[in-house]
Design brief:
Length: about 140
C-alpha cells in the first residue's frame, strides 16, 4: 500500500511540475506570431498599417533578404510570407518604454524614421527601403 501511495504522489508531483513549466512555453509561443501585441514593434506590408504584419520584441540588425533566412511578414493579408527587408511600408510602435528607429541599411546605418512609444505611420522615404530597426529606451 505504501509503495502505491508513494507512486501516486510522485505521479501527481510530476503532473504539477509539467503544468508549471507549460505556462511559460505557451506565453513564448505568442512571440513573432503575426499579431501586433502590447510591447512589440510591428512592420506592415502595406501603407496605413495594412496588409500582413511582422511583429518584433527587440532590435534586429539585419532583416535578411531571402528565404529561409529572413524575417518575414507573418500575419494574414497582402505580403504574408515575404521577407520584411525592403518590403515594409508602415509601422506601429506598440511599446510603452522604447523609441524604435527603422534604418535604411543593415546594422542601424543610414537614414532612419523614428517611432515614439504608441506612434504609428507610414515609413515615408524608407517605404520599401528598410533593413534594420533599433529599440532605444525612452530617456
Amino acid at each position: 500500500m505504501r509503495k502505491h501511495l508513494v507512486r501516486a504522489l510522485l505521479a501527481v508531483g510530476g503532473a504539477v511540475a509539467s503544468l508549471a513549466t507549460a505556462a511559460p512555453a505557451a506565453n513564448a509561443a505568442t512571440a513573432r506570431n503575426g499579431i501586433c501585441e502590447t510591447g512589440e514593434f510591428c512592420l506592415y506590408y502595406g501603407p496605413g498599417e495594412t496588409g500582413s504584419v511582422s511583429d518584433f520584441s527587440g532590435s534586429i540588425p539585419n532583416y535578411g533578404s531571402t528565404q529561409p533566412g529572413c524575417y518575414e511578414f507573418k500575419g494574414p493579408g497582402a505580403g504574408q510570407g515575404q521577407c520584411v527587408k525592403n518590403n515594409a511600408r508602415s509601422a506601429k510602435n506598440n511599446t510603452r518604454i522604447y523609441v524604435v528607429k527603422v534604418y535604411y541599411n543593415s546594422n542601424y546605418g543610414g537614414s532612419n524614421v523614428t517611432y515614439n512609444p504608441g506612434g504609428a505611420g507610414d515609413l515615408g522615404s524608407l517605404s520599401r527601403e528598410n533593413a534594420s530597426h533599433l529599440f532605444e529606451p525612452v530617456s
